[in-house]
Every structure is written in structure tokens, then in C-alpha cells.
Design goal:
The complex is a heterodimer of chains A (405) and B (233). Chain A is elongated and about 105 Å long. Chain A is built from 14 helices and eleven strands. Chain A is α+β, with helices and mostly antiparallel strands and 405 residues long. In chain A, β7 and β8 form a beta hairpin. Chain B is an alpha/beta fold and 233 residues long. Chain B has a single domain, classed as 3-Layer(aba) Sandwich (Rossmann fold). In chain B, the strands form two sheets. A six-stranded mixed sheet of chain B has the order 6-7-8-3-9-10. In chain B, α6 links the parallel β7 and β8. The chains are: A alpha+beta (405), B alpha/beta (233). Chains A and B meet through α1, α11, α12 and α14 of A and α2 of B. Bound molecules: adenosine-5'-triphosphate and magnesium ion (MG). Magnesium ion (MG) binds next to α1 of chain B.
Amino acid sequence: MNDSTGNKFTDLHSKMGLRDTFSVGSSGLRTRRVRAALSVVGITIGIAALVGILGLSQSGSADLLKDLDALGTNLLTVQAGDGFRSQQASLSSDATAMIDRIGPVYEVSATTKIAGGVFLNDLIQDGRTKGITIVAADLNLLRAQRGSLKSGKFLDEMTSQFPFVVLGSVAAERLGIRNTSGKQKIWLKKKWFMVIGIMEPLPLAADLDRSAIVGYPAAGKFLEFEEPPEIIYVRAYPEHIHDVRSVMPATVNPENPEEVQVGRASDVLEARIAASDTFLNLFVGLGAVALLVGTIGIANVMVIAVIERRNEIGLRRALGATKFHIASQFLTESLLLSVLGGITGVVVGISVTAIYAISRDWSIVIPVYVIAGGILSSILIGGIAGFYPAMRAANMSPTEALRTK
Amino acid sequence: MNLENRSPQFALELKEISKVYPGPPVVQALSDVSMSVTHGELLGIIGSSGSGKTTLLHIMGTLSIPSSGSMFIDGRNVVGMSDKQLSGVRSQQIGFVFQEFFLLPGFSALENVANGLLYSGIPSDERMERAFEMLGRVGLGHRGNHLPNELSGGEQQRVAVARALVHNPSFVLADEPTGNLDSENTASLMELFSTLNEEGTTVILITHDLEVAKSAQRKITLRDGRVDSDLSR
Ligand SMILES: Nc1ncnc2c1ncn2[C@@H]1O[C@H](COP(=O)(O)OP(=O)(O)OP(=O)(O)O)[C@@H](O)[C@H]1O
Ligand SMILES: [Mg+2]
């Protein structure tokens, strides 16, 4: 300042470092905390919704995809459809053997529903069956389903001959049975059956989760039951699954192939993934709307701040702030607001995802891109919301800004 | 202060400055105003309401561009400079004191004074040091941590004076600095200006109050945007 030698004002520059820009930009928020907090609610909700819903759908469909992978897409279900001729179409009793003759088929397992109630004992029979169905099944059912046992054993050559029963996961839960040591009996179609196993859930045949499974021989001997297969589960080599599927009807019922229904068990899972995607799109849309509203909210608060703090702008210009400094101050303020909202939103979104996923026993999957995307979009929003107010503040004439009413 | 180092003769020199507000209606706020302000002067600019005092102060402070004429600060022509260059001039060479104080409410007295150096590129701890020293010079060394709303009007204006001086400007512009003060605070603020002036600060004091202008060695009277009289004591 003291060397005013007339050398073209090289010594006369307004300067402000990044740290000061940050501190000046945050000063407007520090002195108006409540308003700052309220103004970011929209952004917080929007980002939380997006992070939450993307996290949840990822966590949800991650498990579905994992299931699908483990369970395979090569399980066909064969059953009698609604025939034209006979009211009650059924499969023939040698259907299992005929399917087994198809080359690429490597596993065939039949099941048949048996009418009758399942109760914990012979005293409490209030007529309510707890929605548990008796099912006669082949011994390889569990293998065909790629299922596993929670405890005990599945039916084998011996136990399928006698009054032994394996419970589906839901059936066991409804009956309150955990013991498979051979001491727990249940009252099944008015006969005592010994529980020897409890299955884990079978995602490809959820009906079986609610069933009590007995062997065909035992069903014949103790339940006076001699019906042909109702649903046959078929595993074939994946690369031939389409061929197997197309020859299936004629193989099972050469006379009336149209009476045979063939489905792919995994289609149910795939439909659930697709459904969760639709759900996802809906919520992403809602989150986007919340973000838009949040952006407008921040822009609004910033415009008000610029008007209210006109004198501050004038003072800062008098102290030597350039237009750029003023613009930086308000842009910083807007960015801080939205990033604060964004970070809060990410934290809330992650928490919601984690809590929900834990409550549903899902694995928690929150992709990094969701977190990064949340923060980045809040930065973008801060820039967009702050741009006009910052420009307006910067272009205010200093004398106009210094005027008091 | 540092008078011997300032090579140009005048702290501020105006040559035939005019200012027209385009309106409508068109207002000729200043017409051919010329004056020179020597380093170390305490100049009072007086005039009735609407005579153009604030307009003149804004031009002297480079906050407003004259319609015609030339102006030199420390011998350098500032007319025609860019907005950015003018900001640089203000950050280094001009101090402002306003009628309304304009202290920032969320900042302590010390921080408000330090804000006078905010745009000068001086590191933060040095700004604080110099602000502390300056606050002592206006007699408020003990009130540095107080917020503006914890200070009396007179004290607030002293803080504002400290802020205007902390970067050691070529001159201080004060527009009705006593306008919001009672007579007691007015007297003590004028005393402060006199003391600072004796210590070397160039002060340009704008007021419509003749009583306030009494302490100025030189008085320029504006009438209808023209210099009506220029009297030295
Ligand atoms: N932005 C503007 N646009 C148009 N006219 C203006 C503007 N600012 C000031 N004027 C006019 O210029 C003239 C001088 O105004 P100025 O504010 O400089 O007077 P002043 O001497 O400071 O008065 P006061 O003592 O009331 O503050 C007045 O007639 C005023 O109406
Ligand atoms: Mg005025």
C-alpha cells in the first residue's frame, strides 16, 4: 500500500482464499440454523428415498437373484390342466416313468395332494387344518427342489413305507414343532405319524412349505390313498430345457397333450424380480419429484437470503469483494445446504435400508454408486438452486445494495 | 500514517465530476465537482438533503461510476477501471463508515473488524491480530468477543470505524456516521475521528449536521450537486 509508485495497480487485487470462501459461505447458515435445516428437508427426503429404495431393491433382488442362481432355472412342473373332456383331468400313473425316458431329463419327482386334516394331537380338532396339506411324494423330491433340511432327515426307502412324515417349513412353524428326534407325533388324517424331518423353505414350490409330506407307499397302506401323480417336478439339463418342455405334453398324454400343463418353477422368482423393478421405478420417480421440490425449496430460500442480505452484499462490495466473491459466497451457501441435506438423506436412506433388510432377513446391499450418486446429485442440485440467486447477488449494484429503506 | 511514503500529492483528486441518474426523471445529482484531498486532512462535506452528498461519497468510494470527469486515488486514475479492479482499490485503499453501521450480526466485534481485511489476501491469523490492535485503538479492546447486538450504538459505530481503518486505507469515507447516535455518542465519535486524524488518517466526513462538521479543518458545501464553498479553517 505504501509503494504507490503508479505501476499499474498490480498491487491492488481483491483476494480471498478457499478457506475464507467456505467460512463466509457457511456463515449465512450458522446464523440461520433453523431455516437452513428446514430448507433442506426436501433434499433429505428425496435423497433418502432414492438411496433407500435403490438399497432395498438391491438387497431384495440380490437375494432373489442369489436364490435363482442356487435353485436353477431348469425345473419344470408338469400337471394336468383343465381338460375339455373330463372335468377332472389327471396325469396317468405311469407319467413319471414316461417323463424319465426323455433323454435330457435327470430327475423326476411326483407329488399328490391327499385330502385330510393335520393336527398336533387327536384331542384338538376344531375343524381348522391350519392350512396344512398332506402330500404324498417321491423320495427324490428334496433333491429335485434343491431343497435342504432344517433338521432331521427326509423320507427314504424305509421311512416312506411307514407312518413317518416330513414337514414343510411353514407347516412346522404353524404346528409349533421343532423336534425331529422321533418323539413328536402328529395326528394326520386320523392316524398318528412320526415327524422325522423339517425342511427349509422351498422357493420353487412354496406350496410344499405348507405341507406334511409322506411317502407314496405309506399313503397307500395307512391313508387308503391310491391316486396318480398330481404335480411332477422335472429337472432337465439347462441347455435342453426348451426341447424337454415342448415334448412334455405329448409324452405325458399322447392322446390329449393339450390337457397337460408345463411350467417353469423359476418363472415365479423372475416375476418377483420384475415386479420389484416396477416398484423400484415408481419410487425412483417419487424420489426424483421430492428432489425437484427440494431444489426449488433451496433456490427459494437462497433468493430470499439474497434479498434479505442486500445490505450485507453492499457492505462486502464496499470492503472490496468482487462480483465473483459475492457469487462464490452464495453458491457455497447453496452447495453446503444441499450437500448437508444430501448427506443426511444418504444416512437416513442407508439406515432405513439396513433396518428393513435386517427385519426381512435380507442381506444388506447398498451399492457405492447409490451413495456416490446421492452426494453427487445433491452437489448438482446445490449448483442449480444456487446459480440464479448467486448471479443476482453478484450483479446487484453496490449502491443499490447499501440503500436502506 | 506513513505520510512520507505516499509519493502523490493527493489522497483523492476529483476533476469535473458529474453524475446524471438517467431516470426518468433525469436527475443531475452532481455537476462539475472538482476537489483535492490532501493526505492527513479531515474534510467535512456538508449540504442539505438531496444536495448530492451520498452520490459524491459513492463516487469517491468507487461504488458508483461518474457520468463524466476524472478521479485519482493516490495519483492513479480510477475512471475506466473494471469492476474487479475497482474492488481491488476498495479492498486496499478505501475505508467506509455508514450511518447504519452495517456490522454482520453473526460475527463478534473482532471478526467484524477483521472483515475489513477479508478481501485483501491477508492470512486469517494476521487479520485477527491486526483487528485486535485496531479495536484497541478505538477503545474497544475489551469487547472483541461481543456480538453486535450486545454493544451500544456508539460502540457498534466504533467497531465499524475500526473495520474501516484496519487495512490502513488512503482515506476513510463516512456518510452521516453520527446519524443514528445520540448527542453524547456523536461527540465521542467525532473525538475519535479527530484523534485518528491527528494520528495520520485522512477522513472525509459527509453530514448535513453543521455541529458535527465543526471538527473538520476544511469544509466543502454542496448545493444542488455543485461545490458552493470550500473553506479551510
Ligand atoms: N439511484 C438514483 N436514481 C435517481 N436519482 C437518484 C438516485 N440516487 C439519488 N438520486 C437523486 O440525486 C440527488 C442527490 O441524492 P443524494 O442521495 O446524493 O443526496 P444527499 O445529499 O445524500 O441527501 P440526504 O442528505 O437526504 O442523504 C437527489 O435528488 C436524489 O433524489
Ligand atoms: Mg445521503
